Amino acid sequence: xxxxxxxxxxxxxxxxxxxxxxxxxxxxxxxxxxxxxxxxxxxxxxxxxxxxxxxxxxxxxxxxxxxxxxxxxxxxxxxxxxxxxxxxxxxxxxxxxxxxxxxxxxxxxxxxxxxxxxxxxxxxxxxxxxxxxxxxxxxxxxxxxxxxxxxxxxxxxxxxxxxxxxxxxxxxxxxxxxxxxxxxxxxxxxxxxxxxxxxxxxxxxxxxxxxxxxxxxxxxxxxxxxxxxxxxxxxxxxxxxxxxxxxxxxxxxxxxxxxxxxxxxxxxxxxxxxxxxxxxxxxxxxxxxxxxxxxxxxxxxxxxxxxxxxxxxxxxxxxxxxxxxxxxxxxxxxxxxxxxxxxxxxxxxxxxxxxxxxxxxxxxxxxxxxxxxxxxxxxxxxxxxxxxxxxxxxxxxxxxxxxxxxxxxxxxxxxxxxxxxxxxxxxxxxxxxxxxxxxxxxxxxxxxxxxxxxxxxxxxxxxxxxxxxxxxxxxxxxxxxxxxxxxxxxxxxxxxxxxxxxxxxxxxxxxxxxxxxxxxxxxxxxxxxxxxxxxxxxxxxxxxxxxxxxxxxxxxxxxxxxxxxxxxxxxxxxxxxxxxxxxxxxxxxxxxxxxxxxxxxxxxxxxxxxxxxxxxxxxxxxxxxxxxxxxxxxxxxxxxxxxxxxxxxxxxxxxxxxxxxxxxxxxxxxxxxxxxxxxxxxxxxxxxxxxxxxxxxxxxxxxxxxxxxxxxxxxxxxxxxxxxxxxxxxxxxxxxxxxxxxxxxxxxxxxxxxxxxxxxxxxxxxxxxxxxxxxxxxxxxxxxxxxxxxxxxxxxxxxxxxxxxxxxxxxxxxxxxxxxxxxxxxxxxxxxxxxxxxxxxxxxxxxxxxxxxxxxxxxxxxxxxxxxxxxxxxxxxxxxxxxxxxxxxxxxxxxxxxxxxxxxxxxxxx
Length: 910
Fold this sequence. Notes:
The protein is mostly beta strands. It is built from nine helices and 66 strands. The strands form 13 sheets. The protein has a 20-stranded parallel beta sheet that branches. Strands 53, 56, 57, 58, 59, 60, 61 and 62 form an eight-stranded mixed beta sheet that branches. The chain has a seven-stranded parallel beta sheet with strand order 20-23-32-34-37-40-43. Helix 8 (861-868) runs antiparallel to helix 9.
């Protein structure tokens, strides 16, 4: 998601390598050129004609001097093409190894730099190697670093050195009388297609998500309705149930010497044969405090089995399972449901429209047969244009035949699980958000029901796992402690592990899993690919790893290829890391990294040729209040794909295994004061606690209605300014005083003509509320459902409905008498409302009267006090915003003042 304000700040620069001399170019001479001599207190020779690489002293022939150059690249903002550094030497040289290293030092200048005043040695960045030419010069492609400094708005600073010890080396200075020998940047300006976009950082804080006064999150949507993903439903039972404390059918094992693999497995099998209770639990395998040696692997293959220890410290203060196998692939304990998803029924196409990031609804073709509660797979099918957009059609040329090769649409067709919460015509309301946009230019999608026979309700608790080893880099021992595979609603809590080759826990092809309070203390393996990935999520969804630690790993917390979220890494710590945490390879999407801290790096990047040709490691990764001791390598994928960092502490760069535009960064080094995950989880729980389907409840009463809001009128039409300012709450706003409505109506993306939320109540003849529903009012005066339907269904069969009321947050509610099951109520017509003087003429039609800020059916001094006591406010959604422009000021008072003393129908008065 690229917030609207940033679209005005984009500049472009291409990386495309062109033939020298054939296309237009800009020549830039250095602002400063100078050198610093290592351990030799000579003067600065920056004003000489030649900058010497090496000493010409007979006493110190091998003293190395570093040449430093600075160029002003501010005029390159709109340049398209590569940037080449060209250095000229005094003599023809062969087999000379000259290299250029970038640095950044705001204090550097030609006049002050001396032998003991070098640029910051801890600010050195990528190294570039030159290409020899035949005209006593050497050229370096430094486009990557030039891009980075252009975006940062800083000069380009370079360090030049050589390791040629037996000859003197010089380059010409900018003071040399022969300008053809000056160091120069040659910036080639040939335009190319599909240019990457470089983001400028803006001082304006756009607040992509913020906590508003009502204690709810408010999201800023871009112009295509993309938004920060909701991660509130990750983990065991989507966070709607606490982790269970199972204390039934406990079978104990006590420690003794020797291999206990068969003994422990026998008890697991015994508990696996117990009957499941109403919650799906069979019983507990309890390993009493002590030492348990195994020389093999343990398996849980039935639902409802828990393996529990009595502490995770050691065999004296807890339960230790010590794996003595010499099998380098062994896993101490595997929870494996074995069964994969099986699809069933017809396949339906998603309608040909743009499906934004973060939405929880999707439109399918007509005549579908989906119902509330169906488990469905939504399969995203990319095309060749998408592969090309990401540049993943060039991996074979750029990386070589030994890599995995180019991406293909078939390999990156990914299915993800959802449950249907509501069906409104051809719109399916989903339990979890879409994490990868479906843009008809680059992808299509299908929907199909599925079955799954994997296992559920299994856990590993309060136990320690260790592996034997013969040396620090030994690989002939157990690979991981725990694997969760083909399972759902399972957990791993309070587990410690040590000396394995790879994971404490890997979650693979699993769903709704919680890993909490675990620690990987150390690893024993070679320090290279495929090892030391402490906590790993692979092709799994709704997984949370929280409150966990890893020491001395490589990719301590990581996501594997084609893993679609939402998934969360929350409040995790890395120490003594040998490499970065982050997505590891091949397009994992929809991940929240919150309060993840490492002494090393957190990277979300195009890894290009790294490893087996990893390419784009991930997109839609959100870093929230994270800390990286070294840096964040943070790339922004093309088009609407996005990576976002908010409130993170550390240095950000876009120079990594490749150089790409910098991801979106907000509140850099300014941690946010609330937890995104905790707040989202709380709101999800509240939403689902009261959720009832709004469209597919086979209601017996169908309502079509119209209304108009007096205060919102601009000429003869209601203003949609709250909508255009992104101030409308996504969730219905009537859960607070005085309504206390508990409905779960929720809108991901408002149509442009939506004005505001309204609340409809139906009453019986005794004036008791029978049912209520939150809806929307649009600029056509129509009351529409939260899914856009102009007809609202109510499940009120066999009820005697006599009245309907319509509430708005700042207007006097109206009441009408009704009868029958198919009702049309047009409050904009005269004579429809029940009671005298209940509406005003506005724009030629009847409208609700504005000024009832506390919604008690009376416009009086209490409403004035609400306005008076809150002062001037801007960009708000409040009950006393009478004209619906997001601003609280005297205009809202004037509207109240014109209607004070008005009374509503007695049915809606307190």
